[in-house]
Write a structure and sequence with these properties.
It is a single-pass type II membrane protein. Its main location: Golgi. Its EC number is 5.1.3.2. With about 350 residues, the chain is an alpha/beta fold. The chain has a domain of about 220 residues: Rossmann fold. Helices cover about 40% and strands about 15% of the residues. It is built from 10 helices and 13 strands. A 7-stranded parallel beta sheet has the order 3-2-1-4-5-6-11, sandwiched between helices. Strand 1, helix 1 and strand 2 form a beta-alpha-beta unit. Helix 1 crosses helix 7 and helix 8 packs across helix 10. It starts with 19 loop residues before the first strand and ends with a helix. The chain binds nicotinamide-adenine-dinucleotide. The site of nicotinamide-adenine-dinucleotide has 28 residues, from helix 1, helix 4 and strand 5. Nicotinamide-adenine-dinucleotide binds next to helix 1, helix 4 and strand 5.
């Protein structure tokens, strides 16, 4: 777990009474973009995060914003009394809190499961007390290694409950079940987004996800790692499209009794992604193959008909454009990290 940072600044500035969003996991990759988008919309944000997988720099741009406040907290633990006292002012509760890449969520599988189940329950309780709407960021991993392609929301999945990915996959499935139970019982209005692979600035260069891995390896001139033969497929959604989809889902006037897939249906092999990264970075680095991780899905493509129909949402950013922006961001990050590392060594 990361050390306390200057982001954890105690009572913080006063928050406007209207449209107060609690964003759990708001210091992470997608969460930091969501916090910014909500502030740009004129709303207030209370970001709740234990900084387990986030980079403090993700929130630097938001620090000092009069409608932004950070509270360091692990959602698997009872919520701070100060937060529960704020319930009458809370209008939306977003749950993005969970390590999302396999190496990170497998570091402490029990904690990953507790974050998803106990943490989601804490936030649902808060939403109920606040009479606020609740959104859970679930995942395409609820479909496991799918036998149906592309994956629509009514597909029940092909998930191992005994393997190393189960803490995340089954944790998210349990979180969905809890959310829908609250919704069915009329305790709170729920929205469940099933997110497919998302990429963009603010990703952790070391999180082990395929886009960040390949781009950072290429930029550093390191060997490029492909797991398996690279014929497995993925569909990559740029983060601004994802945030637009999440916000549309939260605000949509729907009954919320069904999950909604959010992702980009443009499917490609990992080898094709590699080709894009090689062309973009011009690296001459060698490609090395490593064994496929256990239970790694072979194919992944969202059927986004429901999101299209109920939200009028579809991704807009083409891969070439999104990869270029991501690559430029990683290049700046790696360049900024260099002098600090050199200074430390010296
Ligand atoms: N990025 C993707 O491709 C993707 C795909 C599917 C689902 N999702 C889901 O979207 C959400 C955000 O993912 P991301 O890519 O931004 O990941 P991320 O790791 O960058 O962000 C997750 C954030 O949650 C925080 N967190 C983790 N456990 C916590 C806990 N117990 N209490 C408080 N904070 C905690 C982390 O510190 C981090 O800031 C996650 O729930 C993830 O499962 C992401």
């Amino acid at each position: 777990m990361r050390k306390q940072t200057d982001l954890d600044h105690g009572p913080g500035p006063t928050i406007r009474p209207l449209a107060l969003n609690v964003v759990a996991g708001g210091a992470g990759f997608i969460g930091s973009h969501l916090c910014r988008a909500l502030l740009e919309k004129g709303e207030s944000v209370l970001c709740l995060d234990n900084l387990q997988t986030s980079r403090a720099s993700n929130l630097r741009a938001l620090e000092g914003h009069p409608r932004f406040r950070f509270m360091r907290h692990d959602i698997s633990q009872p919520l701070p009394a100060e937060l529960t006292r704020m319930a009458p002012r809370i209008t939306r509760v977003w749950n993005l809190a969970c390590a999302a890449s396999p190496p990170l969520y497998q570091q402490n599988p029990e904690h990953t499961m507790m974050t998803n189940v106990v943490g989601t329950n804490h936030l649902l309780h808060l939403a109920e007390a606040a009479k606020a709407r609740f959104l859970l960021t679930s995942t395409s991993e609820v479909y496991g290694d799918p036998e149906i392609h592309p994956q629509a929301e009514d597909y029940r999945g092909h998930v191992s409950c005994t393997g190393p990915r189960a803490c995340y996959d089954e944790g998210k499935r349990a979180a969905e079940a809890l959310a829908f139970d609250y919704g069915r019982a009329g305790r709170t209005q729920v929205r469940v987004a099933r997110i497919f692979n998302t990429y963009g600035p603010n990703m952790d260069p070391n999180d082990g996800r395929v886009v960040s891995n390949l781009i950072c390896q290429a930029l550093r001139g390191d060997e490029l790692t492909i797991y398996g033969d690279g014929s497995q497929t993925r569909s990559f959604c740029y983060v601004s499209d994802m945030v637009a989809g999440l916000m549309a889902l939260m605000e949509a006037d729907i009954d919320g009794s069904d999950p909604v897939n959010l992702g980009n249906p443009d499917e490609m092999t990992v080898n094709e992604l590699l080709g894009h990264v090689l062309a973009l970075t011009g690296t001459a680095a060698r490609v090395v193959h490593r064994p496929l991780p256990v239970d790694d899905p072979r194919r992944r493509r969202p059927d986004i008909s429901r999101a299209n129909e109920v939200l009028g949402w579809a991704p807009k950013v083409p891969l070439a454009e999104g990869l270029e922006a991501t690559c430029a961001w990683f290049a700046a990050e790696l360049a900024a990290a260099k002098p600090a590392a050199a200074g430390f060594a010296g």
